[in-house]
């Protein structure tokens, strides 16, 4: 069969470029992982607040469970019989935390991002998206009828030019960005985006807070909370699979947007709703979220330590968050450096094209509040300088 030959050919070429992926076998022990018998500190998890391994939370939650409230499936879409009361509870909880008109929960961030834009856009919509937005947003844009132009990462001058140029030709423009970016750990400029939006009658903002929710803001609601601009954002999206140690996603928005999505959003309508037990766990943790400022402070402090150390060692580091890339260039080099760190007990992973642009392969550190200062200092000691890395290759 031709198709298998083509597949083999492509897999071979991925392998020769150092870009072949596989599913690793991993055993988890709180913030440690064991792979092939080697125990390492997990520096690649999205459990930013360390809640996934928090024994007392698990115990407290388990104590609330009974045969009748342990519901492991919703057995249906929310529009049919899957809309258990916990859905209403959590959506009220979110709307009240964020102080917005309403909230809507989805099965995952991927479901949210591939569903919202196709539901709300027409061919009369222009999407202006940051060049580095997450694949799920790209897929959502592709599924929508909108015209899309990508602007250079965080280049708001270019964004302004694009708005000026096209604003009159479309019914509305939706600016799409992440708040903290997945691969560089830097931030969008929310204040500036909101100021820009205020200059025109027909601009809306879509902000994905997947990496900021839980971690930033006084109540942990994200960058929009930190900057006091939650209500200036039209589509404020976040996920529960990262800092929230659960699964699922949300939008907080106007009531009309919620109602519209319930009627039009295919990845909400045509899928089995998350199990009620999952929502109960999310709701339980949402209640704790505002009180977790110690965890947030600890995370910021170790992140700062690593950012500064990387800069000192000659790496270009624009991260202002707990996601900290160590950019080395070639894929093979990233793999080599990651292997070395793993041999020394630090489970850090290489990130390569197509996830990041060619020539910017990197080790991506993704820190958790569970990691101690001492462990970060040990890590810093074994990280080679940029010059050393280039010379060994
Ligand atoms: C992880 C992530 C998603 C996807 O969320 P899931 O709940 O894992 O599907 C969406 N957007 C961004 C920016 C992410 O980092």
Explain what you see.
This protein has 393 residues and is of the alpha/beta class. It folds into 2 domains: 148 residues, Alpha-Beta Complex (Aspartate Aminotransferase, domain 1); 230 residues, Aspartate Aminotransferase, domain 2. 40% of the residues lie in helices and 18% in strands. It is built from 15 helices and 14 strands. Strands 4-10-9-8-7-5-6 form a 7-stranded mixed β-sheet, sandwiched between helices. A 4-stranded mixed β-sheet has the order 1-2-3-12, with helices on one face. A hairpin with a 2-residue loop joins β2 and β3. α3 runs parallel beside α11. The radius of gyration is 22 Å and the shape is globular. Bound molecules: pyridoxal-5'-phosphate (PLP).
Give the CATH level 1 class of the largest domain: Alpha Beta
CATH fold descriptor of the largest domain: Aspartate Aminotransferase, domain 2
Structural class computed from helices and strand pairing: alpha/beta
Q: Cα-atom Rg, whole angstroms?
A: 22 Å
* Overall pLDDT: 96
Strand content: 15-25%
Please give the share of residues in helix: 40-55%
Biggest sheet: strand arrangement: 4-10-9-8-7-5-6
Topology as H/E string? HEEEHHEHEHEHEHEHEEHHHHEHEEEHH
Helix segment tally:
15
Uncertain spans: none
The CATH architecture term of the largest domain is 3-Layer(aba) Sandwich
How many domains, as an integer?
2
């Amino acid at each position: 069969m031709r198709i298998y030959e083509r597949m083999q050919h492509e897999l071979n070429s991925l392998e020769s470029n150092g870009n072949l992926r596989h599913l690793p076998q991993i055993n988890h022990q709180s913030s440690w992982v064991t792979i092939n018998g080697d125990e390492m500190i997990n520096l690649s998890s999205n459990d930013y607040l360390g809640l996934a391994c928090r024994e007392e939370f698990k115990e407290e939650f388990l104590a609330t469970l009974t045969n009748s409230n342990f519901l492991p499936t919703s057995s249906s879409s929310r529009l049919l019989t899957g809309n258990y009361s916990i859905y209403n509870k959590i959506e009220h909880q979110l709307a009240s935390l964020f102080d917005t008109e309403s909230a809507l929960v989805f099965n995952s961030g991927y479901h949210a991002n591939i569903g919202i834009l196709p539901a709300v856009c027409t061919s009369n919509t222009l999407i202006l998206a940051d060049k580095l937005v997450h694949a799920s947003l790209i897929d959502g844009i592709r599924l929508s009828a909108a015209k899309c132009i990508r602007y250079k990462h965080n280049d708001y001058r270019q964004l302004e030019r694009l708005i000026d140029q096209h604003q009159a030709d479309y019914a509305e423009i939706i600016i799409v960005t992440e708040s903290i970016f997945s691969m560089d750990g830097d931030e969008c400029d929310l204040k500036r985006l909101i100021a820009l939006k205020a200059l025109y009658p027909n601009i809306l903002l879509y902000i994905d807070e997947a990496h900021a929710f839980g971690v930033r803001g006084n109540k942990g609601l994200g960058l929009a909370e930190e900057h006091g601009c939650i209500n200036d954002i039209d589509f404020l999206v976040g996920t529960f699979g990262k800092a929230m140690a659960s699964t699922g996603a949300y939008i907080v928005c106007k009531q009309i947007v919620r109602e519209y999505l319930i009627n039009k959003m295919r990845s909400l309508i045509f899928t089995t709703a998350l199990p009620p037990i999952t929502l109960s766990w999310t709701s339980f943790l949402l209640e704790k979220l505002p009180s977790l400022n110690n965890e947030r402070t600890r995370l910021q402090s170790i992140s700062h330590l690593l950012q500064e150390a990387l800069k000192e060692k000659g790496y270009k580091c624009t991260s202002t968050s707990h996601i900290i890339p160590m950019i080395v260039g070639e894929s093979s080099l990233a793999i080599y450096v990651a292997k070395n760190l793993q041999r020394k007990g630090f489970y850090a992973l290489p990130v390569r094209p197509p996830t990041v642009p060619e020539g910017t392969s990197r080790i991506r550190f993704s820190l958790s509040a569970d990691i101690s200062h001492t462990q970060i200092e040990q890590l810093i000691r074994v990280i080679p300088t940029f010059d050393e890395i280039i010379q060994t290759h």
